[in-house]
Structures are given as structure tokens and as C-alpha cells.
Amino acid sequence: MRRRSKVTVAIVGAGIAGASAALALSRRGHRITVYERFGPGHRRGSSHGPSRIVRKAYSDSAFTEIAAEAYPFWRELDEQAGGGILNEVGALYFGDVQSQNVIEVAEGLSRVNETYHVLDAREAKAVVPALRLDRNEIGIFTPAAGWVDA
Question: For 30-57, what is the mean pLDDT?
């Protein structure tokens, strides 16, 4: 069996993609140098602030599977940081009961063994009182969804 040699890798940009690549490669033993134009914690990039949604509910099953695979890393990062990064508050997705998107969201969540609850219009309104759904609409509530304070 041939051993892979460890390499030095230069990564341009320390945003979420660059930082994630650096972490993954360093865990594999590679030497990493990350180049970032701005200082640590700057607000000029696209992945800062408390508005980064984290979820597994997508109508495209490929995204659902990627999110399910990535989610343990969000929990690990939150734990290593002492908490406060990952905020699991749940999310409610809704639409017509016969909507292909709604059906695909539920099917995708089932495929990755994610807990979710299908709510009729009345039950969804109990979760989000300002919500006004028609009788033919349902909600899919996923408790593990939330936001990341990046």
C-alpha cells in the first residue's frame, strides 16, 4: 500500500469555505497556510453575523444528505467554542399538502433519519401564531434546525 505524502497547502480566504478546508486538511496532517485580506472576525465577508440558517430540510435530496453529513461538525464546533455558535431553535417549512417541494422535504428528512413533525394548518399556527395557512397547507417542523452566529 502506497502512503500519501503530506503536502503544504495554501488557502486563499478564511471564510467558511476556506476555514473548513483548512480544518479538514490539517486533520489529515497537511501543513496549511491561510491567506485572508482582512483581519480575524471582520464583517466584510458573506459568512458573518447571526443570520446563517442551519437545516437539513431541502427539497433537493443531495442538499439534505450533505447537510445531514455536515451537521455533526456544527455541533463539534459549537462544543469546542464553549457554546453559543449553534442555536437549535427549530424551523417550520410550509406549503400545499400536494406540493412536490413539501413532499420532497419530508422524504429527504426521512431518508437521513431526521426527526420532523407534519402539522396541519391549525397545529402550525400554534407553533407560529402569526402564520396564516389555508386548510390545504401543512407545516413541517424540524426541531434540530436553527441558526449559526458566525
Answer: 83
